[in-house]
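Summary for the funding panel

The consortium committed to producing paired sequence-structure records for every protein in the target list. Below we show the first two records in order, beginning with the earlier of the two.
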Amino acid sequence: MSDNDFMKHSTGDLANFPPEVDMNTPTVARIYDAMLGGKDNFEVDRQAMAAIEEANPGTVDLAQANRAYLTRGVDCVAKAGVRQFLDLGSGLPTADNTHQIARRTHPDASVVYVDNDPIVLAHGRAILAETPRTSVATADLTDVEGVLAAEDTQRLIDFSQPVCLMLVSLLHCIPDEQDPFGVVRAYFDRFAPGSCLVYSHIVSDDETAARDFTDRIHSFGTSWGRVRSPEEAAKVFDQLELVSPSSDGTFDPVPVECSTWRNDGRTPEPRPADPEVLIWEHAGIAFKH
């Protein structure tokens, strides 16, 4: 699909296409869409995806495993009784979105998607226009008060009841100077007991691999944070209670490589079993009590 075809496909009218879209700089949402086999991306995003995959073979598989983890995670918390979801950095709509998964358990589930990519707003609103109790908004997720005070958030989310905060493959996009873990704490300070976090974060236990991956993303001119260590990424769970990463609850409640989190037939692994794999998604679900 050419870039002009993409624009027509997304809007049906080039005059209404978001004017702030930069077709020359890749974005995280569109790169991720390309990795998932989506069509809502530009050539520059596909080139970035290819460069990342070349530098770190297996990154595309990692993105797909992370998306499958999202499905299992939303299903888990919905079955635990959570009916409200705030999906930050949601990206472009694809198969098995948060609202579709949650509504298998709760047909009345409320979902607010938030992303800072204008294409997500334009394309997401078009797709979700006829979907009740679901909205998509463009906002800076680090502006906690702004996100929570937004009209659609106030309309769809009851903060006296548990809320699921979705931070799936997102917090590594936030630079340290924006205090990503403090931002998460600020959200949970506003949430009722019983609220929960569905979380994954790109990590490495090898400083060189982490630096090289981070430098590669920054080289595209894309706004991004960094690959963190597993210990750094796990700070997000401070003051929250992790659940077991095994379906039967027999495994200790620790973060694990995302493809092994409650994936039947697989033993949870705190890091990939293959020592040659130096980049992975650290994942876990935790509740506020």
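The next record, for a separate protein in the list, is shown here:
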Amino acid sequence: MKPITELSRRATPFPKPQALFVDDSTLWMSSRATQRVYAVDRGSLRVTWETAAPSVVWGLTKWGADLFAVLGEEAEGTPRTIRRCMPRVGFDPAFSVPCPEGLGSHLSFDGVSLILSQWYPQKLISIGRDGQPGRVLPVPHQIVGHCFAQGAFWLATTDDEETNDYWLTRLDPATGRSQDVARIGFAARALSFDGQHFWTNHREANEVVQFAFAD
């Protein structure tokens, strides 16, 4: 298995970057340290908008015009929820969906439903418009980020978060089969796709990384 090819690695304008969603020229990001959501210009990495969150934002994705986020306190065992954040406005106090079993970290959108990942249970769960969980897809590793692109789920994964053994894993939603396709090689957090390349955070280094991989 070949390592990823890093195309850029840049310091983020805030510490501990956690969630990440690439939206054309904007990187929607969160910080575990500041408990805020940021709109960051993709070219300059300048913050163009920010808002406080009710708690730590662990994952972000976009559905239509709105952002959806997984929120929860740092304390272990605290139930997590899915909340809506309206860009340039802030969090909607009327929208809150509990994560199944109170567990969740990252989100994607597959064109039909929100997809929630659960890190240690190692699974993806579809969340319908009514907030109810649907299909469950098991994953052979712990999930530290994921996105939906080119008809498949792509995941940043590990078996031991204290090491640098992290991989890019592809999961076919039609068959449920998964394959590790590249070595990430550092403690990644979040995963997004810009139409050509992948993005992730190296949270402990306070950096955002754009990368590619060879089939």
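Regarding this second record: The chain has one domain: 5-212. The two ends are 9 Å apart (CA to CA).
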